[in-house]
Description:
Elements: E1 3-4, E2 10-11, E3 13-16, H1 25-31, E4 32-35, H2 50-61, E5 66-71, E6 81-86, H3 96-102, E7 125-129, E8 146-147, H4 148-160, H5 165-180, E9 196-199, E10 202-205, H6 206-212, H7 223-226, E11 230-231, E12 239-240, H8 243-253
Helix pairs in contact: 3-4, 5-6
Amino acid sequence: NPHESSKMSSSVCIAIAPTDQNDTEDAIRASITSCSVLPPPGCTIENSNEEIETRQLSLQLGWKEPIGLFGYTAEATYKDIYIYFDFADKVSPVNHLATKAFSMYGLGGAQEMGPPKWGNIRGSVVLLRLEPDWGFSPNVTYCSTLGFDEIYKTLVFFRDSKTSAHKIALKRDSVRMRESMPGLPGGQPFAQNFSHYMGPGGVRTEHQVNEDQDKCDHCGKTQSIVGKLKKCQRCKITLYCGKECQKSAWKKHKKICRQL
């Protein structure tokens, strides 16, 4: 069985069976399994490539048209996963959580303006970790394996997010692009001349990218990570990523809330 349940905490390759919006935590976790299909025999993550991986998926899983997608896990600051599914499958159950979480880019990494239009993912998906482009993400921590809990949190994060996966990817792309920009001659930061970001998913203005770098006052996560920060309804200034952080910070924040 290429999709195997495992007591390990992580795996080089993970599969996600079809999941529904209303599935319980146990059901979602049960759908996430270790997968022995990739990398192909004789290959490692480092020396494998998409051509031999799609051939292996067709051979081992019977997929007629395996195709890949770039994606982000829940808290990633770079595109850290590659997602394979059978684009030709029109009869298997829709993988609702995978579709919502991974509808970020065009098929095979195609550069498309606007939200993806390739439809639903049916059947299982197979995930691999992507190594960062160190030129754009020089300070990230890289791990070649995928955590089962990490993938569970990713599915639940995008399921519950009011911001689409496509929009979150666009936010993270633009922030990463800005942070990678070198300085100009004379020491002037390039970011000061940043008027807009234009990428495969759309356009972000300088003001929008600035907002995407705002942080939750409690946990420190940026808006580009959480999707949309919310203002304290009393002071209308302090930002939080959700009710849990706001509640945890209230004991400290209430001392200054009315003064802001």
